[in-house]
Amino acid sequence: MIVNDALIEKLAHLSRLEFAYEEKDVIKKDLEKMIGFIDKLNELDTSGVEPLLHMSDNVNVFRSDTVKGQISREDVFKNAPLHDNEFFKVPKVIKK
C-alpha cells in the first residue's frame, strides 16, 4: 500500500480530523511504519494455527460468592455522622 497525500486526506476526512501541513509528513511516516509492520507479520506462516478468542484457556477464574457474616443495622450506622436509620446522609454536592 502506498501512503500518499491523497490517502492522508481521505483518512482525515473519514475521521473528521484536520492536520496541519507539517503534521502530514509525520503522519505519513507513522503510517508507513505501521503498514511495514503489518507486511512483516504477513510473512509469518500461520497455517495450522487456530485463531484465538481469548489469551488463555481459563474459562472462569473467579471465586464463587459466599455470604460470610452480617452486621446489624444499628452497628452499621453506629459511626455514621448523619443517617436516618435507613440510609447514610451526605452533604449536597450538586447545586441547581
Topology:
Elements: H1 5-14, H2 21-42, H3 73-77
Compose a concise summary of this entry.
This protein is mainly α. The chain contains three helices and no strands.
Descriptive notes:
With about 100 residues, the protein is an all-alpha fold. It has a domain at about 5-40: Histone, subunit A (Orthogonal Bundle). The chain contains three helices and no strands. The two termini are about 55 Å apart. The mean pLDDT is about 90.
Helical content band = 25-40%
Q: In terms of per-residue confidence, which ranges show pLDDT below 50 for 5 or more consecutive residues?
A: none
User: If you consult CATH, what is the topology of the domain at 5-42?
Assistant: Histone, subunit A
Spatial extent as radius of gyration: 29 Å
Question: What is the overall number of helices?
Answer: 3
The number of strands is: 0
Classification by helices and strands: mainly alpha
CATH architecture of the domain at 5-42: Orthogonal Bundle
Assign an overall shape: elongated
- Mean pLDDT comes to 88
Terminal Cα separation, in Å?
55 Å
The main pleated sheet reads as:
none
What is the element string, with H for helices and E for strands?
Answer: HHH
Report the β-strand fraction as a percent range. Answer: under 5%
CATH class of the domain at 5-42: Mainly Alpha
